[in-house]
Amino acid sequence: MRDVLAAAVTTVPPESTQQALGYPSLFLLVLIGALVPVVPTGALVSSAAVVAFHQTAPFSMVLVFVVAAFAAFLGDVALYWLGRRGMKSKNGSRWLAAIRDRAPEDRLAQAQEKLAEHGVAVLVLSRLVPAGRIPVMLACLMAKWPLRRFARGDVPACLAWAATYQLIGVAGGSLFKEPWEGVVAVVVLTIVISVAPGLWRRLRGAPQ
User: Fold this and answer.
1) Which helix (H) or strand (E) holds 44?
2) What is the pTM of this model?
3) Who contacts 28 (Cβ-Cβ below 8 Å, separation ≥6)?
4) Which of 60, 64, 66, 71 is most buried (CB neighbours < 10 A)?
């Protein structure tokens, strides 16, 4: 019996183990990152794409894309639903407070203006612009968008977001022979992309 178990373990390819652990982990982390906007979900997707790029298993890249987009969509919809509950409550909610805390007045005003002009299309751009998702989501809440309308607009937004960060991962994976090198490169790149707009706004607003 011991020999049979040992043979079974040795015949399981490492990639199968990585996939069994990696895809659920990616889904959970992206979902949490959508609900609690402090997890660098873009870096997670790019890193997963680097690993998938170096794997020989079929459909690895497709699975990364589907898992990331689906998790982001579920997280967005759940956060929007919680925000709507907070808007209807007299005392608000901690979820609504968290959304408001991450939507500065100037960014919220811009989001409301663009939402009024372009509608659903703004949702797609908000997912691609660093720190753009929460102000636009709050603008949708304040405009009293139904959950169904928000969800319809969020589908292409999450698909575009997952595709963009996966392409960053593919680019990083193609430049380096070892997967860990590509992971480090894309993590650094995505962090720079996420913090650059905030730093630029601070520099522009700093007194001369």
Assistant:
1) helix 41-53
2) 0.78
3) 71
4) 64
Q: Please write the tens of the pLDDT for every residue from 96-113.
A: 887 888 788 888 888 889
Q: What is the average per-residue pLDDT within 16-34?
A: 78
Domain presence at residue 208:
no
Structure tokens at 2: 């011991």
Indicate whether 117 belongs to any domain. Answer: yes
> Do the domain assignments include residue 205?
no
Task: Give the domain extent around 23.
Answer: 2-189
Domain membership of residue 202 (yes or no) is no
Distance CA 33, CA 198 (A): 19
Residue 36 backbone phi and psi in degrees, to 5: -120, 95
Rounded to whole angstroms, the Cα distance separating 18 from 27 reads 14
For residue range 120-146, what is the model confidence (pLDDT) as tens digits?
Answer: 888 888 888 878 899 999 999 999 999
- The total of structural domains in the chain comes to 1
64 is written with which tokens? 């990364």
**184: which 2 tokens?**
């480090």
pLDDT of residue 202: 57
- Would you say residue 85 has pLDDT above 50? yes
Q: Are 47 and 186 in contact (CB under 8 A)?
A: yes
Instruction: Give yes or no for a contact between 190 and 168, defined as CB atoms under 8 angstroms apart.
Output: yes
In this structure, what are the phi and psi dihedrals at residue 91, rounded to the nearest 5 degrees? -95, 5
- Distance between CA atoms of residues 65 and 40, nearest Å: 16
